[in-house]
Design a protein that fits this description.
- The protein is globular.
- The chain is mainly α.
- It is 62% helix and 1% strand.
- The chain has one domain.
- The structure holds zinc ion (2 copies).
- One zinc ion binds next to helix 4 and helix 6.
């Protein structure tokens, strides 16, 4: 009876209350990367800058925007498996964890946006929503039961399970290659500074675009559209559009809502590598097909 009560109390805790202990491994990694990023500033070369910008786009747009987010989390379009895996490997270069933990966190965010179970809501504090939830939270370290509940589709895919465990290997390999072929300047810029810039850009979607910007759609959460964040994240800053229509593969709904991730998906579509692309127009009307399977999983999980 007593243990039942304790368990009940635990499930009623919010994500923030469940946190508290510092995730030392993550925290030390973040400190090292930030120190490396500052060191990079003293070793500027044009080659280092250009290489970093290319990797920023590969990891942030092909990887996070088109891969982890719009494809794996929301299944906003379909690709051949090899394309899905390439985009997934690109995303691992951001050091934002493997696909299973990332997708689980983000599906919880959509199922419980800006309510106590949200892993990273600014209603729990700006610092918390930006990075506190990674340094001390339980998100990105979800237990087996949570992962089974939110990401059963990825658990059935052997490659996704494997890369989720070894997600840091592509980044380590890239680091070795940059050091050998580009020297210290390219290495520090392409690995440390580029990763830190990419991390803060992604985190700003969780913090800034749940606080500052405009709202096209009257959603029940605090999500906003923000041009600056959209430019930093290749289009993820049209976050109010996205919360209103999570499955749509295109987030920028007008010509001035620049959405580089959508251009990438559109290119895949023109090459015949993206199909069943889900779309809405600026009035929120759906264009393109709707898939029911993932929605069923999320409804059950929520
Ligand atoms: Zn959000
Ligand atoms: Zn999303």
């Amino acid at each position: 009876m007593k243990s039942l009560k304790v368990r009940d109390m635990k499930t009623q805790l919010t994500n923030k209350q469940r946190a508290g202990r510092i995730n030392w491994e993550t925290t030390i990694t973040m400190i090292v990367f930030h120190v490396g990023a500052v060191a990079a500033l003293f070793m500027f070369t044009w080659t280092a800058l250009i290489v970093s910008l290319v990797i920023l786009w590969v990891a942030g747009s092909l990887g996070i925007g088109m891969g982890y987010h719009r494809l794996l989390t929301h299944r906003g379009y379909k690709t051949p498996k090899w394309v899905e895996y390439v985009l997934t490997v690109c995303a691992t270069l951001t050091l934002e964890s493997g696909p299973i933990q990332w997708v689980t966190t983000h599906r919880i965010h959509h199922a419980h946006t800006d309510v106590p179970a949200d892993p990273h809501s600014p209603r729990d504090g700006t610092w918390w929503a930006h990075v506190g939830w990674i340094l001390t939270g339980t998100a990105q370290k979800h237990d087996r039961a949570t992962v089974e509940r939110y990401s059963p589709d990825l658990l059935r895919d052997r490659f996704q399970v494997w890369i989720s465990r070894w997600y840091f290997l592509p980044l380590v390999s890239l680091g070795v290659a940059l050091l050998v072929f580009g020297g210290w300047s390219v290495f520090l810029w392409g690995i440390f500074l580029r990763t830190v810039v990419g991390l803060h850009a992604t985190w700003l979607v969780n913090s800034a675009t749940h606080m500052w910007g405009t709202r096209r759609f009257e959603t029940t959460d605090d999500s906003t559209n923000n041009l600056l964040i959209a430019l930093m994240t290749f289009g993820e800053g049209w976050h109010n559009n996205h919360h209103a229509h999570p499955r749509a593969a295109r987030h920028g709904l007008t010509w001035y809502e620049i959405d580089v991730n959508w251009w990438g998906i559109r290119t895949l579509q023109l090459l015949g590598l993206a199909k069943s692309v889900k779309l809405v127009n600026a009035s929120g009307q759906r264009a393109g097909g709707r898939g029911g399977k993932l929605e069923g999983v999320l409804r059950k999980a929520a």
